[in-house]
Amino acid sequence: MRRMSSPMIAPSILSADFARLGAEIDAVGGPEGADWVHVDVMDNHFVPNLTLGLPVVQSLLTATTIPLDCHLMIDEPGRWAPPYAEAGAHNVTFHAEATDDPVAVAKDIRAAGGKAGLAIKPGTAFEPYIEVLKSFDTLLVMSVEPGFGGQSFIADVLDKARAARKLVDSDELKLLVEIDGGINADTIEQAAAAGVDCFVAGSAVYNAADPAEAVRKLRAQAAATPRV
Ligand code: DX5
Ligand code: ZN
Fold this sequence. Notes:
By secondary structure, this protein is an alpha/beta fold.
């Protein structure tokens, strides 16, 4: 099936140099550069790793015009997620596994001016969230266990991307299907074929000699892959 829009690439700054984040974001900007910059927020509770939080995101928002795609791998998203939207993050994604009331959190994010995203870990089923996803703008399908960059792609999760794509194409859901974890030149075509709209790539972009070129190449690869 023909895709309606160009595939989106969201480089994850988890693999960037944290001492030079502004410059690292500039390195993926420019014509045909990053559509979103993916910012991984980890609290060392929901995942066994600690990264950055709201003050850093607030600074990044003053340093770039590229929309920030904040992926919150944290407990208590009801408390912590809406302030990212208030600060001006474009997309605020939290984990389905971290809350009993994802719809309420989505409403608060939207009320604060952000787009709401729901992330599901590799072992979390998609079907129970179909109704819930009517309140969301993005579904983030995790293709690694959240917590670290540079892990291997888990292809089994593509069934969830395919199922979501089907519901979007039949107008039962209206959202972007995003995938995160292990996306690189060897794996992006499988994900594109499954109907993913937006591809997060950390190590594949920031370990490349030319990160902007890596973004363009990944997008071109996805765009050249027909959906099946
Ligand atoms: C992992 C993060 C990812 C990570 C992806 O928990 O959510 O965004 O940066 O890194 P790569 O692309 O290297 O798998
Ligand atoms: Zn992420």
